[in-house]
Amino acid sequence: MSTDSELKRSIRILRTWPARLGARFHCNSLPGKSPLHRELPKHLGTATMWMGFGHIVRTAASVAQILVLSRILQPADFGIVAVCAPIVAFIALFQDPGLGQAAIQKEHLTSGEASLLFWIDIGIGLVLGVILMGAAPAVGAFYEDKRITSYLMATCITFVVAGGGVQHEALLAREMRFDILAVNTAISGILGLVAAVVAGLYDFSYWSLYIGSFVTTFFYVVGLWSFSKWRPGWPKKTTSANWFMSFGMNLTGFNVVNFFARNLDGLLVGRYWGLIELGHYDRANRLLLAPLTQVMAPLYKVMIPVLSRLNSQPDRYRDVYIRTLAAALILILPGIAFATATSDVLIAAVLGPRWDYAAQIFSVLGIAGLLQAMNNPAGWLFITQGRTKEFFRWGLVSSLLVVAAFFVGLRYGGIGVAVAYVVAEYIKTPLLWMYVGRRGPVRTLDIASAVGPLQLAAHLSLAATWLVHFCLPSVAALLFSLVTCVVTFFAIVIAFPRTRRLTADIIFNSWSDRPRVIHW
């Protein structure tokens, strides 16, 4: 009797197996009852730590790849990649024209809409690949090196592969699967490192660097497809197609103008003041941006889907945004203030005594870094509220102001450009928050009340640390300078009742998912 039952059960499983297989590997519907069916994580800090883990592992793998291959390859091999890098970086701006963020931001996303976006991303990857393939011979001829042509042509494949994972990544982000995204990022980075080192040992020369990059991208996309249950169907036109394209084009427009504004300073300094001046300026700029990127990049990945799903709950939206921004600033600002005030000693310890001029430039750019840490997350508001047209307009105005500042300061070299950039940042900051806060859940007054005291604390702690370091400029006194910076910062923060309550809430009850509202 039991044998007959087991036989019938086996036959039933065999009959339903094809349907199960199709549902698992050819699913045309979005997972769950709704793409936003998962609850908001009870601990946003945990989600951010997951994304930070993935980002740090991939960054460490990239650094390790450079260090190991530097002992295997010739400098000319790295030179080939360095020539191609800015060209590839510029074309990559159009890789995902904001469609991934659009899929995350849209409150109700259908499988048909996701499929349409998927095929658009694939098409864009193909178009970009063809453009790069057409430009490759010209670039190779300009540098009189056919290896550059070959490298750029091979890179075309990467664009097509990357386009196949944009929507799967967006859907996993909508489901708040940050742990999966982080692990996938880390594993793909490690696999890219292994592939690059093995290729280098087998004397693949500059192709080792390409192989490492391609393997990282390929396995990242494979991981996205493996973890996501959704599979695209054939593209069909939807009524929301125009909205998606408008959202994406405006976001891409901002990225393009911001790209030029961010890179023009180095181009101008190198063109008019030479490579030595540019070397000092570039090192100072990169040392400042590195810690900001390490904190803000994981936060961006988390906050875009989280805030997008809170659009219908303005009080919670405001609460989550302000507490996240405040927590990030409490973490970042004392470090920037300390590094800026003691840059002469710190830069010499990191880069060596030959970089004194870079330390001077860093001490200026660090002042702008205090504002950058606050201003960069303003983009979260534009994107998650669907205001990418306003974001693009702000990008145009901001970029024109920064470019004008670069030309004004250029006559004084790298230090002059840095001073001009700081002035431009102080002019931009109030304009930015008045513009972004004129509508939406987060108003200008909310930011002024929550973040204003933190900025005041950062600037005063910078001044106090600089004064202590000026009086005690030795390496042994660095610890005393650090204590001065931290104590001054938090003494001013807790002096304001609003930021004292906010700081206590972050420390003792941070990231709870209860419907708490902070009233200013």
From TrEMBL:
It comes from the Bacteria. The chain crosses the membrane at residues 78-95, 116-136, 148-166, 178-201, 207-228, 320-341, 361-384, 391-409, 415-435, 447-469, 475-496. It is a multi-pass membrane protein. It is found in: Cell membrane. Keywords: Cell membrane, Membrane, Transmembrane, Transmembrane helix. PANTHER family: LIPOPOLYSACCHARIDE BIOSYNTHESIS PROTEIN WZXC (PTHR30250:SF10), PST FAMILY PREDICTED COLANIC ACID TRANSPORTER (PTHR30250). Belongs to the polysaccharide synthase family. This is Lipopolysaccharide biosynthesis protein.
